[in-house]
Amino acid sequence: MRLLHTSDWHLGRAFHRVNMLDAQAEFVRHVVTTVRERGVDAVVVSGDVYDRAVPPLAAVELFDDALHRLADLGVPTMMISGNHDSARRLGVGAGLIGRAGIHLRTDPVACGTPVVLSDTHGDVAFYGLPYLEPALVKDEFMVEQAGHEAVLTAAMDRVRADLATRAPGTRSVVLAHVFVTGGESSDSERDITVGGVAAVPAGVFEGVDYVALGHLHGSQTLGERIRYSGSPLAYSFSEAGHRKSMWLVDLGADGSVTAERLDCPVPRPLARIRGRLEGLLEDPELARHEEAWVEATLTDPVRPAEPMARLAERFPHTLSLVFEPERAPEEPGASYARRLEGRSDQEIAEDFVAHVRGSGPDERERLVLQDAFDAARADAAVREVAR
User: Fold this and answer.
1) Out of 176-185, 204-213, 324-333, which region has the weakest mean confidence (pLDDT)?
2) Cβ contact 34:246 at 8 Å
3) 84 and 23 within one domain
4) Which domain, by its residues, includes 23?
5) pLDDT given at position 12
6) Which of these, 67, 109, 312, 387, has the minimum number of CB atoms within 10 Å of its CB?
7) 122 and 149 inside one domain
């Protein structure tokens, strides 16, 4: 049986204020084309279909379009809710939608109830484990301590118990939205440590043939049978080095796994550049980034004037500007109180301006600071008299 494993669509999410809906729609078209052209037997989407619990209408319309396109193919699709989704909202109408071959698994109660498909070699049982927030599901799974490993282990115990009742040779696929030990995270994933230690060991998935993971945005392999597909689009500059892709997985008659990585459409490449402004504007090596979405880190000791406007002349798609000025190291071991000792309010304020901007205030700015301090002292004196 041939599976297409994807996850973390995050429909409705922007990238540094850039609307990504067109790129997300292009990805949906890419999924449909891949299913048709590569003879896919089942699609699995491992959570974070939406970017937030109450998605914008345009994102809901795109999801609706995706459901219709997938249903029209006649290829079964399994989807689970992730930590960004509202499980209740995503699961509305799941029974009816399931009749069209789109199987939404958003209720933890159903972890041990699979969608069973068949090929010439027998049955394949697909188990959907939606994101399990420990504090919310610990009673359902009857665990004493609300931790990710405890609830996921309990959910997998239900999977193994159901699998044991099925015909010998039944193959198994688990969809899960979780942070597995050994995975590499990025800046665009929402922290899931609220319910305890986030990472769970890969060993909790023992006994199944393939584990289709979601949550981490970088495509990665944690073992022959355990993979993250990653997000189809980049949602932070920490993903500049990612190759965005899906897994085309062939599940053999004996449960063996062969996986091929398929690239996703890239709306625009990402680039992180660093250096002094003049150097970034003149360096011929950076010509390859002129059409990329750019994050620029400026190291000028003094913050240059209008840096974003000047960068945009060469890199018109600059989206993020970071300042990390090169400065001489401060006296080691000197406490903050010691550095301020004997200094006036005016001097402290001027030092702060220099620290933030890289250069101290000019004469006009010093007068503004002086007027502000004089006004503050006068106000304090009036309030003191009023007492």
Assistant:
1) 324-333
2) yes
3) yes
4) 2-263
5) 97
6) 387
7) yes
CA gap 363, 383 in Å, rounded: 31
DSSP letter, residue 17: T
Question: Predicted confidence band at 185 (pLDDT cuts at 50, 70, 90)?
Answer: confident
The overall pTM is greater than 0.90: no
Give the single-character DSSP code of 207. Answer: T
| Domain co-membership, 376 together with 351 | yes
Indicate whether 165 and 300 sit together in one domain. no
In a domain, 168, yes or no: yes
d(CA 244, CA 232): 5
Residue whose pair of structure tokens reads 């665009």 in the numeric block? 188
Cα–Cα separations (whole angstroms), residue 356 to 341, 346, 363: 20, 16, 18
Q: What is the mean pLDDT of residues 154-162?
A: 97
Whether 143 contacts 151, CB under 8 Å: yes
Looking at 216, 240, 263, the residue that finishes a domain is: 263
Token pair 């939404």: residue: 104
**253 and 277 belong to one structural domain:** no
Q: 231 and 277: one domain?
A: no
In sequence order, what are the beta bridge partners of 43? 4, 77
Residue 296, C-beta contacts closer than 8 angstroms, at least 6 positions apart: 273, 274, 280, 307, 311, 315, 318, 320, 321, 322
Q: What is the pLDDT of residues 8-50, one digit of tens each?
A: 999 999 999 999 999 999 999 999 999 999 999 999 999 999 9
Looking at the 3D structure of the chain, how many domains does it have? 2
Biggest CA–CA distance in the chain, Å, is 93
